[in-house]
Write a structure and sequence with these properties.
- This protein is α/β, with parallel strands linked by helices.
- The protein has 26 helices and seven strands.
- Strands 4-3-5-7-6 form a five-stranded mixed β-sheet, with no helix packed on it. A two-stranded antiparallel sheet has the order 1-2.
- A hairpin with a 2-residue loop joins strand 1 and strand 2.
Length: 602
């Protein structure tokens, strides 16, 4: 029965498999993405959301603005996509994140097609990846930590790799690595042209990072000694082809740098300052091995299987002292290494490495029937996942944050844990892959849809949302309330400091009474700056009576995102508060107090 099912699956046209996987990925990723107390990070709520909102408010899209200043720190394409997407279907947290979910689903489908092309390239009988293996690869990608978390956030990291992966796929489709001759039609010109143009689009998402995944894949094919150079030699020996390549590369460079040139001409001083700051912040050529540790986290839980595979290969080599890697395995190991190496010479976050998971996960797919039999891999990965799941549950139930849970939600939380432990550990039948990955995917989604939102991180009381609906809003220093802009659909303004150059803007924005939010640790600096501005105004004959008045409205407490992602407690600085909260079984000690005032200048 199973063999006939496998035969039927493998006989299905691949395009139907791809369409099904794409739709499933969109549904799985987008389902909890509209919960505003769900997973987020400062780069998303402080920058990405607010840039798109300010573009919508001003109807100026070509050069994005943030806090009434040009947003030159990042290229504009993702903000353009967010702007036109919002103009097309409307703006909300769910709708904007739906764009990210679609891009992530395209990324998964592109990686599947790349895997299929690689298998076509390396197999002697020119058979690509079977449908069952495509489904297995899709399951590993979709249930991976970085895809399931970053894939639903409106961030730069996955979109830039979408274009990088698409460009690599185009170069593979152009048959520049194939053993057979170039096709006689013009398809090679089409694929090469599209590949370079997609690279330029990726550059407009996040700059040079777009070249890492695509470039490392091409170089890996060269280093693995599987490129037959006859096609390339024949191609470049024709002067018409050389002219074509130079032309398409020139067009691509024009697409890459035209926006930067225009922005530099319009905002020369700001552009120079941002460029200098970015170059100094990246710590170029300061060697660090953090990426080799980070890949374990972002490829979790399948990084454990990858480490075990490396161990098996090393053990076999030590024992036999002979060649142990076939062509595909050699290529994928080189590709993984080249994906990680550039990040050893630049300061980066773990999520930048999202594309590096692909060669590692493809390695796991190739050897999955062997790796899944390992009790060490299954038990270790499940223990870590169960501990993460249990920590959320203990935190929620200990601090009595489960009051909003219904009977059904409590049942789902318990049943999910049981099903995951049962299928991931104890079901040894090789036909149970679907149930294994379904239980893992369910575990991730319960964490992201039920447990994490129950922590009420970045929660905003409804009365505050009502207060600010028709008023100007300023965030002072810390950008809290984090999700207020996305909820009220107003960009609002944020001031790190009340500098001299900000005074005119502040006065302009508080003429009709403004609500300003201040975190408790910034209260002293806030009052100091207000008094300083009033003193400057008092000494100014033209604005002598134009003093800023402050009216205290109230405060509230909430857990807040610490930096990016899942972190909401600073274990280095909050040790005393953690111990006091545990003893009193009261979460208030871990919460941040947000004060809000009404300020006016009349």
């Amino acid at each position: 029965m199973y063999l006939s099912l496998i035969k039927n699956i493998n006989s299905i046209n691949k395009k139907y498999i791809f369409i099904s996987i794409f739709l499933l990925a969109v549904i799985v990723l987008s389902f909890p993405s509209g919960i505003y107390t769900g997973l987020t990070g400062k780069d998303e709520y402080y920058l990405s959301f607010r840039v798109v909102l300010e573009m919508l408010e001003s109807q100026q899209w070509f050069i994005p603005f943030l806090d009434e200043a040009p947003r030159l720190r990042k290229p504009p394409l993702l903000y353009w996509l967010g702007y036109f997407w919002s103009e097309l279907i409307g703006f909300s947290l769910y709708k904007l994140r739906l764009l990210s979910c679609i891009l992530t689903s395209i990324f998964i489908i592109t990686l599947l097609e790349i895997a299929n092309e690689i298998f076509l390239l390396f197999s002697k009988n020119k058979i690509g990846l079977r449908n069952t293996n495509l489904i297995l690869l899709a399951a590993l990608l979709l249930s991976n930590f970085v895809i399931i978390t970053e894939g639903r956030r409106f961030m730069l990291d996955i979109p830039v790799n979408v274009f990088s992966a698409l460009s690599l796929l185009c170069f593979l489709k152009a048959k520049i690595f194939a053993t057979e001759k170039f096709p006689r039609d013009f398809s090679k010109y089409f694929w090469i042209s599209v590949g370079f143009i997609l690279l330029s689009f990726g550059f407009l998402i996040k700059g040079p990072i777009v070249f890492i995944f695509c470039g490392s894949g091409i170089i890996s094919l060269c280093l693995a000694n599987f490129i037959y150079f006859n096609n390339l030699k024949n191609f470049v020996s024709n002067y018409k082809n050389v002219i074509f390549l130079l032309l398409i590369i020139g067009i691509s460079f024009l697409l890459m740098f035209a926006w930067f040139w225009i922005a530099k001409n319009q905002f020369a001083a700001e552009f120079a300052a941002v460029l200098e700051e970015e170059l100094s912040a990246r710590n170029f050529f300061e060697i660090n091995l953090k990426p080799f540790i980070s890949i374990i986290l972002i490829a979790f839980p399948f990084s454990i299987f990858g480490i075990y595979l490396i161990y098996l290969k090393a053990k076999k080599y030590i024992k036999n002292r002979r060649k142990i890697l076939n062509s595909k395995t050699k290529f994928l190991f080189i590709w993984l290494l080249l994906n990680l190496l550039p990040y050893c010479f630049i300061k980066s976050f773990e999520r930048y490495l999202v594309a590096a998971i692909f060669p590692l996960i493809l390695l796991v797919v190739i050897y999955f029937p062997i790796l899944i039999k390992s009790k060490i891999c299954r038990r270790l990965s499940s223990i870590i996942l169960v501990l993460i799941y249990a920590l959320f549950c203990v935190f929620i139930y200990y601090f009595q944050l489960n009051s909003a849970f219904s009977f059904i939600e409590n049942f789902i939380i318990a049943a999910t844990l049981f099903l995951f432990i049962y299928y991931w550990n104890f079901r040894q039948n090789k036909f149970d892959y679907v149930k294994k990955f379904a239980s893992l995917l369910l575990l991730w989604n319960v964490i992201l849809c039920i447990l994490f939102p129950a922590l009420n991180i970045n929660f905003i009381p409804s009365n505050i949302i009502n207060i600010v609906q028709d008023k100007n809003v300023i965030y002072y220093k810390g950008p809290q309330p984090a999700m207020l802009s996305i909820i009220t659909k107003k960009a609002n303004l944020h001031y790190n400091l009340f500098k001299n150059k900000d005074i005119k803007n502040i006065q302009k924005n508080i003429k009709n009474k403004t609500i300003i939010f201040v975190e408790n640790e910034n209260l002293k600096a806030f009052f100091h700056n207000i008094n300083r501005i009033n003193r400057l105004q008092k000494n100014n004959k033209n604005n002598k009576n134009n003093q800023i008045k402050i009216h205290y409205l109230g405060n509230y407490q909430t857990l807040t995102t610490k930096g990016s992602g899942i972190k909401f407690i600073d274990f280095n600085n909050d040790k005393t508060a953690i111990m006091e909260s545990i003893k009193s079984r009261n979460i208030r000690k871990l919460q941040k107090t947000i004060f809000y005032f009404e300020i006016s200048n009349n």
